[in-house]
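Hi team,

As requested, here is the filled-out complex form for the PXG run. I kept the field names the same as last time so the parser does not choke. Let me know if anything looks off before we queue the next batch.

— J.
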Amino acid sequence: MPLQIYISGKFYDKENAKISVYDHGLLYGDGVFEGMRSYSGKVFRLQAHLDRLYESASAICLTIPMTKEQMEADVNKTLQLNSLQDAYIRLVVTRGSGSLGLDPNRTSDPQVIIIADSISLYPEEYYQKGLKIITASTIRNHPAALNPRVKSLNYLNNIMAKIEGLQAGCIEALMLNTKGEVAECTGDNIFIVKKCVLQTPPKDAGILEGITRNAILELAKELGILAEEVTLTRHDLFVADECFLTGSAAEVIPVVSIDGRTIANGDVGSVTSRLMAEFKKLVHK
Ligand code: PXG
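And here is what came back:
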C-alpha cells in the first residue's frame, strides 16, 4: 500500500495527496506546523507538540477546525495506518484556500495535513565526532516582526541562514537575534556547558521553545546538573567547555567547532555524552 497521507479527515495515496494552489499556506506561508518523532509507535511528547501547534495557530489568529483530542487521535491513526514505529510526523495547518490577496478573512476551510514517513537520521558520524557550524549573517526574525515562538509555515528566515551554512559546508548554522545575542540554530536549539553548568538562551532571546530543549532542561534537573537560561553571546560559545544542539529530528547532537574555532579540545564533551544517552532512554520510556 502506498503511504497514506491525512488531509482534513480523509486519507490519500501519497501521489494523490494535494491541496489547492489558492491555499494561503502556499501563497503566503500562512499557516503553522509541527515536526515530531515517534519511537516504537509512540509520539514523543505529543501533547506538548499539540499545545505548541494550537498556540502558534492562536498567535496568528487561525482557528484549527478540530479539537486537540481529535488531532491526537488522527495523528495516531495516521501512524497505525502506515504501520510506522519509528517515524517522522509532520503536522501542517494552512489558512485554507481563498482569493488572491492577503486578507485571511477571505479564505475558507483551513486544511489539516498529517504526513507520517520513515525518518532519515543524521549520519552517526556527526554524533560521534560532533558538528562544525558557522554563524549566519542572517539574523533571527525580530519577535515584533514574526515571533520565533510561532512555528509558522513562513520559514524563509531560517532557510536563508541554512543556505549560508550549507554554502560553508555546514549542515547547521547559528542565528543571532537583533541584539547580536545567540538565539538558536535554523532547526535546533543550542546549549553550552561552562564549568559544569548547562546554559541555553532564554525564551525571550527570540527562539522557538523547543520540546527537546525543555526535555533536556528537565533531564538536567533530574540528573543534578545545574542548568540556567541565560543570555549568551558568541564569546560565550567560543570559550565554552562543551556545546550541543537539540531538536526533534537531531535529538541531541554535539558541536565541536563554531566559525572555524574549536570548542575546548574539539572532543565531544562528557556532559553532552551523558545527556545524549539519557535522552535516548527518555524517548524509549
Ligand atoms: N528551533 C527551530 C527554529 C526549529 O524549527 C527547534 C528549534 C527544535 O524544536 P523541537 O521542538 O523539535 O525540539 C526547531 C524544530 C526538520 C525539522 O524537518 C525541524 C524541526 C523539528 C523537526 C524537523 O528540519 N525544527
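Two things worth flagging: The mean pLDDT is 97. The first strand starts at residue 4 and ends at 7.

Thanks,
J.
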